[in-house]
Amino acid sequence: MRYLRVAVHQEPAVRHPMHQFVVEREGYSVSRLLQYNTALDEDPAFLFHVDGDPDPYEPALRATESVSTYEISRCPDDTFYLYVRESIPEHSRDFVGALTQPGLVGVMPIEYRADGTVRLTAVGPAEKLQTAVEEMPGGMDAEVLEVGEYDARRLDAGGDLTDRQFEAVVAAVDCGYYETPREGSVEDVGDRLDCAPGTAAELLRRAERSVMRNVVSTGPF
What we know:
Strand order of the largest sheet: 4-5-3-2-6-7-1-8
Shape: globular
Helix content: 25-40%
Order of helices and strands: EHEEHEEHEEHEHHH
Number of strands: 8
Distance between the termini: 18 Å
Radius of gyration: 18 Å
Structural class: alpha+beta
Strand content: 25-35%
Low-confidence stretches: none
């Protein structure tokens, strides 16, 4: 049983309006689709966790024609959970269909990132995974990030990190921030990233939160 992790590069014309919002608006890094229910065919239901402020996000969501209803639950760390029901355009159905064809299993979450890519993982026979990559609809290109024998315990716990968060973790490791005793400081991390210490600290905090969530969700077995 193999797994495939891909980054799907979408042209703006076929990108979901709220993904485009995350791309264009400062302060948003990723929107993660956690669960969905397609039993309600006309308006499937979705649960997201969005990394960013809900206040600017909500008016844009309200103006999105495909959305029929939504609810937002705020978190104390400038993120929020989003329940939404909406109709799905044809090109998005083709995209989902390529990676949920018979014989494949999608692994949550699906990440809608600020760099314009959609990152997701599918599990199944190698030939089915290859077909999924080849059947991406027009305006979308799949870049293979990882492929290998599936083992949830061994999938990269840092796979949910944004590029900037990953850069911060690399800088922290390089300067000894995680050594015992600590050899580097958050100021050293900021110097390497050419950003303020407070920004470096926030990047590390978000990266650590993401990694720990993955560790807890996969469990020891």
